[in-house]
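Deviations from the work plan: none for this task. Representative record:
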Amino acid sequence: MPENSKNPKSNRNANRKILPLVGYYKNQQEEKLEDEVLWESLRQGSRAALSEIFLKFNPILINYGKTIDRDLEMLEDCVQELFLCIWNTRQKLSQVNSVKYYLIVSFRRIVLKQVERRGNFKRMLNNIFIEYPKFESSVELNLVRDQSHMELVKRVKLAMENLPIRQKEALKMRYIDEKKYIEIKEIMDISISNARKYVYKAIKNLRKSLS
Amino acid sequence: MKKEISDLLLDERFRNWSLKSDLDDYNHWEKHFKEHPDEADIAQKAKEIILLVELEEPTLPEDKNRSSLQKLNNTIDQQEIEKQKADVPGLVSDAFYEKKRQILSYKTRVFIAAAISFFIVFIWLINSEVNKNDGQKSIDLVKIVKRADYGKKLTFVLPDGSKVNLNSGSELKYHSNFADSRQVDLIGEARFEVVRDEDHPFRIKSQGVTTTVLGTTFNVKAYSDEKLSVSVVSGRVLVEKKLEDTVEDIILKKEESTEFDDESQQFRYREYNKDELAWNSGLLVFDDSSLTDVEKKLEKWYGVQVDIQSDVVFNENYSGKYLNSTLEEVLMGMSFVLEFEFKITNKKVSIYR
């Protein structure tokens, strides 16, 4: 189950700011020309051009990224990764038909990769917790035949111990005891959204310390 | 041929179909989807993305946008520093001269020939105050100082993404809240590539003159011992100097240059000279230079102390150009034409007859 609940569609449309279509197509040609000049400057190694391109397209990319995943911090990291990569490979860049869509497509690829990685991580955690329900029991651990898998389990266990108390509690309840959020809320005496947040942060911290 | 969302997004004609902005493209793709109904699903997804990107206005706050940019620029700067540490050390180390000396003889011949055949006439007036560079001013905690010592140059990026090349013996100061008010103080010479931000004009203060910029590439020369001059490579610049009860100003366009004339207290147009501005590409130019000019230029460029004996006199002022040359190469070129001998010991040069 996703940690971040998506906004119901009706809410989203209420917040949309619509750009006027009138006069839009007149500007399209000028905009394309400007982008071409910036892109060429970038290929020649202009830091200023890189900055201008960033300022222009970062908001658009983030706005689009939110439709894939609402994790803003992750989206920002993806933008950084995208532009760093573009800067480092600037000499190998070819001329593009549309700078905007080149960036969008590249950004999308990076974001989807991140999302998949995180999905994989959660699946891995799930597997570990399912296979070793009594996580603390060393007897269970000794049953592991695969050496490398045991290493991973040990690392996960260590990383868990280093989590802030409430995050650790929430995570254990959710994954090991397989409690529903409503039950966690009762036991820890917090709101459901806070319970979700603790679990979410716990997974995030685990992923960071294990990567 | 199986299509992916990214293929559709990159196809301009498909985008036109999504936005209904071109009749031919619209018909073309309508026909395509009739023939390939299995692609309709993926097309719908791609169309939604295009509509979102073109019609919805992003709501990212401006300051958040700029702070993300700053983060990117810091990362790149850090990367550059790491790379430079791995490279061979900079201009003035002895190791560098060692390396160059190996190919000296060929280059020397080339430059001697160049020095004889080159005589360029500029309108270059140099104030002969022997004021040496001011000692470093006291630095507030809030101010950031970037400095290129004699013999070195420095290239760096300001928090807003604007790029600065500092020439030898130059210093640039700015506040840590640069993003709110883009203002710098310059001593010496610098070349700027300014990122456009119409809400925050970029201002350079130097020798009492303010140069205001919107987004352009230009050069400001404001050494304490030379006449102040500003040259514009591209874009537009406003140069102002406050006098007692008025403001003297001039607007420079592409390939124009100005200098401030102390006698008339006015800005004058002067000849725009590309070579003058090529110092950041390693071009050292002597243009109708007197003995003192040569001495000062060498000291700044190479970071050495130059001592000229009193029996050395120039019959004519010296003109010549040197590209990415060592001190020894330049002196050899000059000595031949100007008839002197020289000796380099460590960071000291002595010129004699």
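The mean pLDDT of chain A is 79.
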